[in-house]
Amino acid sequence: MSVKQRVLSVVSRLLGRTIRIVGGSKSAQIAAHLAEDLSPTVSQNTEFGTIKFFCPGKLPEWRARTLLTKEPETLEWIGTFGETDVLWDIGANVGVYSLYAATKGHSVLAFEPSPSNYYLLGKNVEINKLDGRVLGYCVALNDTTKLDTFFMSNTELGGALSSFGEAIDWQGRSFVAQCRQSMVGFSVDDFIKLFAPPFPNHIKIDVDGIEDRIIIGARQTLADKRLKSVLVELDSERTEYCQGVAEALATSGLILLKKEHAPEFDQGESSAAFNYIFVRPDSGSP
């Protein structure tokens, strides 16, 4: 923990103690007003313009602060999009990459089933005045269209590591859900047939465990030559799983261009997590 973070932690604890001393309903009222009035907005300058992030917690602030460093390969990928290309961001979280693509000028469909993250996604779209470019949906995508359960390993604002239909994590291991939410899920193909949304030229999948199911439910979409590329985050140590995803995409005419992660992830718990980028050779994508 840095000196700045330690100072902030101390100040936060002192403020909390001061409020509790007041006691009763008055302390709750003060805390509620402070929570609303003191929630910071973090700004990040990018080559396409400034992006603002509503950050009422530590994780949203971290996601905003690391926009340009956490996944440089994702930013580079978005940088290759054609002027009128459409992005589908599946597992958008608080909208970091949806906002980046929209600030660049792209239309984005952002899918985020976590209720708390969807709130922050919507707030971020609002404060950046991007509601004409980013369409947010609080639904899950899957291999079939159905009502099921969204298993949340945590309920933190900006949290991740949750799964639709089965409590499995990004490494394929079962987990005990801290909270379960009722959720509607669609296959990508069904979503397009039912609602005729803007068709994706690029799809980003970051869902922590059911990537293969989403790809199975998107067979027709992936085979459509309007779809130029797919970026999917996978655990490289799940060799057979990754091979299955690659083979399913190859069947649709998409080949692996590269897999990358930032050097800061070369060590530690996430060292096996990579973004795999697949492209259609005849699409003009690099």
Task: Produce the secondary structure layout.
Blueprint: H1 3-22, H2 24-37, E1 41-46, E2 49-54, H3 58-65, H4 72-79, E3 86-90, H5 96-104, E4 107-111, H6 115-127, E5 134-137, E6 140-142, E7 146-152, E8 162-164, E9 179-187, H7 188-195, E10 202-205, H8 211-216, H9 219-223, E11 229-235, H10 239-251, E12 255-260, E13 273-279
Parallel strand pairs: 3-4, 3-10, 4-5, 6-9, 10-11
Antiparallel strand pairs: 1-2, 7-8, 7-9, 11-13, 12-13
What is the averaged pLDDT score?
A: 91
CATH class of the largest domain: Alpha Beta
Give the low-confidence spans: none
In spatial order, strands of the major sheet run 5-4-3-10-11-13-12
Global Rg: 20 Å
Calculate the terminal CA-CA distance, rounded to whole Å.
Answer: 40 Å
Question: What structural class do you assign from the helix and strand content?
Answer: alpha/beta
Please report the number of helical segments. 10
**CATH homologous superfamily title of the largest domain:** Vaccinia Virus protein VP39
Helix content: 25-40%
Shape: globular
| Architecture (CATH level 2) name of the largest domain | 3-Layer(aba) Sandwich
CATH T-level topology of the largest domain: Rossmann fold
Plain-language structure description:
This protein is of the alpha/beta class. It folds into two domains: 1-38; 40-283, Rossmann fold. It contains ten helices and 13 strands. It has helices at residues 3-22, 24-37, 58-65, 72-79, 96-104, 115-127, 188-195, 211-216, 219-223, 239-251, and strands spanning 41-46, 49-54, 86-90, 107-111, 134-137, 140-142, 146-152, 162-164, 179-187, 202-205, 229-235, 255-260, 273-279. The strands form three sheets. A seven-stranded mixed beta sheet has the order 5-4-3-10-11-13-12, sandwiched between helices. A four-stranded mixed beta sheet has the order 6-9-7-8. Strands 1-2 form a two-stranded antiparallel ribbon. β4, α6 (115-127) and β5 form a beta-alpha-beta unit. α1 runs antiparallel to α2 (24-37) and α4 packs parallel to α5 (96-104). The radius of gyration is 20 Å and the shape is globular. The mean pLDDT is 91.
